[in-house]
Amino acid sequence: MSRVPDASTQEKRSFFQKQDPWGQGVAIWVLVAILFVAPLAGSSLRHVRLDNNVENWLPENDPSAQEYLWCRAHFPEDEKVILTWEGSAADDMRLPVLAGMLSGQVDEDGARRGGLPYVDSVMHAGDLLSKLVEFGVEEDEARRRISGTFIGTGHLKVRLTEAGRDQKEKTIKLIQERIHSQFGLELSIHEAVSPWMPEELDEDAFQELYSRYQPALETETELAPSEFGQHDFQVSWTGIGSNQKLKQAVIDSINHVASFATSDEPNGRQLVDSCYEKTGTPIAVVVTLSEAGGAEKSKAIAAIREAAIASFIPDDGLIVGGRVVAAAELNNGVIRAAWNPNATSILGKSVIGFSGLVGILFAIFSLKCLRLGGLVIFVSYYSAFLGVSLIPLSGGSMNMVLVVLPTLLMVLALSGAIHIANYWKHAVWESPKTAVADATKMARQPCLMAAFTTSLGLISLINSDLAPVREFGIYAALGCMISVAMVLYGLPALLQMVPLRRIAPEEVKSKRWSFYSDLICRHWLSIGASTIVLAIACSVGLRHFDVETKVIRYFPDSSPVVQDYQTIEDNLAGISPVEILVRFDKQSQSDLRFLERVELVREVEEEIRNHPEVSGAISMSSFLPQRTSPGENATMREKIFYNRRSNETEKRIKEEHAAESSAFIVMNRLPEVNGDELWRINAQAAVLSDADYTTLTQQLSDRVGKITRYHAGVDHTVTGTVPLFLRTQLAVLDSLVWSSVAAFVLIASVMIWVLKDPLAGIGSMIPNVLPVISIFGLVSWFGQKIDIGTMVTASVAMGIAVDGTLHLLTWFRNGLRKGMTRQASVKQALMHCGPAMWQTSAAVGIGLLVLFPADLLLISRFGWLMALLIGAAFIGDMVLLPCMLVGPLGRLIERRIRLNGEIEVVDESEELNGSTVVPSPHISLHTTQGRKSKRARELRNPEN
C-alpha cells in the first residue's frame, strides 16, 4: 500500500507532483474537471444564435445612430423583401396572383384568409400607380414619380432599320464589337419586352388562380398597357445603372451603327433606327415580413420564392433582394462555413473544419508523435470550445466578427501547447518522472506573459464604437485566459495520464537551427537592415488604406445575392435607402398652408431625385397632384378655393388616410417639440457603386438646405442606412487606429516591466509592430479594403507576435545571466524556441490559409490576412528580433542585467560559443547523484 506524503513534502513539490489524501495524483482531478465542464459548455452552445443587424453596430449615444433611431421612432421600418423578374410590368397578369398567394385575401368581415404566415403585407408598382391615379395624378406623371423606386427603365431597347432586321445576327455582333472596342463593355443581349401570357398547357391553371385573386385588388382603376415602343431586342451590361454619362454615350454609339461603306452609300447603310431607354419594366414587389418572418428570415425568403414560382414566375428569372436577404444570406454563409451539407467537395463541406484538420495534421507531423500531437490538438480545440460557449452563456449572440473567434482561440491555445510539448520532449530525457512538472515550470512565465499581453491586445478593442468589435475583444480576452489555463494545467495533466513513447535523440537535435543561428550572428546587420527596409517599403502602401462596411461586399461578386443586387440596381432601383426628414415647426405650419408645404417637399424631392447617385425618391407629395399657390394678384375666390382645397387635403391625409400616410408624414412625438410636422422623403442609392458616402450625404444635405433655408422654422435631417454606413465606416477606421495604439501602449508597458528598461521595452516592440504595419500596407497596395472582420486582426496579430518575442527573450536573458555572449545567447534562444515557433506558425498559418475558399469573404479575408500576419510575425521574431538582440537591443538588455547584478557564475564548459556545440534543452536538466547522465551529454554535444 502506497504511503501518502505529509504536508511538508507536498508543499515542496510542484502542482503536478502533488497527491490528494487518497494517494491519487492531481492530474486526474484536472481531467475530471475537464470532463465535468464539457457537457455544460455543450449545452450552452446549443442555444447560440446569429445576429448580424448592421443598424445595431453603433452605440445608442452616437449622433448618427441617434438620428437613425429618432427617424425609426417616428417612421417605423418593417423588414422587407424586394421581388422582381425579367419582363415584369405594372399590368403583369401575375401580380394579383402573387399578391394574393403571399398576403391572402380579406373577407367580408375584414379578416385575412390564406397567404403566408411570414408575410404581413404586399405592395407593388401596380398598386402605387392605381393609388396615384385615384388621387388625380396623370398616369405618365405617376410612372415618372415612382421611377427608380418601384419601377425601372430596365435594359436599353434597340429598334433596327429594315436593313438591320435583314441581317439581325450580324448587326447584333457588330454592335457588341463596336461597344467593346469603344468602351470595353461586354454587352448582353435580351429578347424584346412583350406582355406575359400563360402557355397553352398552363392557361386553365392560371385562369383559376387569376379569378380567385383578381378581386383582391384594392382599386378598380384600370391601367393602360405598358408602352415600350416597337423594338427588336434589348442590350445591357454589368453596372449599366451606375453611370448615366456612360449609358448616354453607349446609346449615341449604337444609334450610329452602320454597315460597310459602298459607292452608293459612302457612310454605310444605317442598321439601327433607335436605341433608347423607357420606364416601365421591371417593377418592384415589396413584401413586408410579419413578426414570424422577421424571426425566421431564411424560411420566409424560401416560402416567398415558392409562392412566386407557383404564380408562374420562372425561378431562373426571379430576383430577390433587400436588407433582409443580405442578412439571411450572411447568416447562411456563416453556417455554411461551419457545415454545408450540399457541398460536393470535402473542402466545401466545412471550410472551418477543414482548416482545423489541416492544422491538426501539420501539428502531428511537426511534433513527430501521433499521441503527443493528438493531445496538443485536443487542448487547442477544447479551449476554443469553452471560449465560444461563453457567448450564449452570457446572453450574447454570434455575429460576423465573432464567427472567427473559435479559430483565434484555437490558434492561441495551439501556440502555447506546442511550446509545452517541445519543453517536455527535451525534459523527458533527463528525468521522465519529473519531466511534466519541469516543463510546466519553465513554460509558466513566458506562457502567462504571452497570454497576458495577447489579452491586453484584445482588450484594447473595447475602445471601439462598434458593438461586434467590443464583444469580440471581451470574449477573445476571456477565451485567451481559458486557453492558457488549459495549456498550463490541461495539457500537463494529459501528459501525465497518457503513456507516450520517449522521443528519439535526433528529434531534439537540430543542425539546421544551429547553422541558421550562426548565419544570423555573423550577418545580423545586413539581414536586420534588409528586413526593416522591406517592411518600410510595404508600409508605404498604407497611403492607399481604405475600409469597407457594406454588408453586400462580404460576398464574392459571383455569389447569387450579389448578382441579384446588381440586377436590381442596374434595372430597377438602388437598394440603400437615404431618408430625408423635413421638419415644419408650428410657426412655419401657420405661415405655409398644407398644399404649400406639399409643394415645398415636392421641390426637395425633385432636387434629390436629380442627384446622379440617386435612382429615385418618393414622399407624400408623390401621391398628390401638383397645386400652384395663388399669387398676390389672385382673386379672393381663387384664394378661398385654394385654402378650402388645402384644408380638405390635409384632413384627408391626416385623418381619413392617416394609417397609410403615416409612412410619409407624422407629428413629432418628442415632448419638447410637440406639434412639429415631419415629412419623410425616401430616396434610393446604389450600394454596389463606388460612390463616396461622405460626399453623397453632404451633397444631399446641401441640396435640401438650398431650398429650406428660405423658410423660417423649416429644417431637415439626412439619415438612413447610407449615413449610417458612412458613420460605421469611420468607426471601423477609428477602431483600427485606436485599438492598435492602445494595444501597442499596453503591450509595450508589459515589455518594459519584463525587461526593466524603457528603451529595451520599446525596442522589443519593433519586431511586433513592423509585421502588422507592413502587411496592412501590402494589402493596401493591392487595393484590398479592410472590413469590420479583418480590422481585429491587427490587435490579435500584435498579441500573438509578442508570444514568440517573450519566449525568445526568456532564453536570451537566461544565456546572458549565465555569462554567455550575446551571440551565444541568441543561438541558445533560437535553438530552444525556433522549432516550436516554426511549428506553431506553420500549423496555424497553413490552417488559416485554408479558409481562403470560404463563400463569405469576411471569413476568407480573415483567414488569409491572419496567415500573412502570422507569417510576418514569425519573420519578425525569427529574423529581425535575433538581429536586434545581437546588436543594439541586446546591448541594452545586457547592460541592464549587468547593472542589476543578475549574471551567474557557471561552468565554462556549458557556455555556448562554438558552432559545433548544441545548447542545453528547454529547461535546465537535473543531475542524478551529482553526475550528468550519458543521455544528457549526448544531447548537449552532438560530436559524442
How many structural domains? 4
Structural class: alpha+beta
What profile does the largest beta sheet have? Answer: 5 strands, antiparallel
Report the uncertain regions.
Answer: 1-12, 216-222, 906-944
Which whole number gives the mean pLDDT? Answer: 83
Helix content: 55-70%
Can you count the helices? Answer: 35
Portion in beta strands: 5-15%
Number of strands: 17
Radius of gyration: 35 Å
* Straight-line N-to-C gap: 43 Å
Shape: elongated
Keywords: Cell membrane, Membrane, Transmembrane, Transmembrane helix
Membrane topology: Multi-pass membrane protein
InterPro entries: MMPL_dom, Mycobact_MmpL
Region (Disordered): 923-944
Descriptive report:
Keywords: Cell membrane, Membrane, Transmembrane, Transmembrane helix. Residues 702-886 form the Membrane transport protein MMPL domain. Residues 923-944 are annotated as: Disordered. The chain has 944 residues and is of the alpha+beta class. The chain folds into four domains: 57-75 and 576-685 and 691-726, no CATH class; 78-152 and 196-224 and 282-321, no CATH class; 154-193 and 228-278; 351-498 and 510-553 and 756-903 and 915-940, no CATH class. 56% of the residues lie in helices and 8% in strands. It contains 35 helices and 17 strands. The strands form five sheets. Strands 12, 13, 14, 15 and 16 form a five-stranded antiparallel beta sheet that branches. A hairpin with a 5-residue loop joins strand 2 (105-106) and strand 3. The chain is elongated.
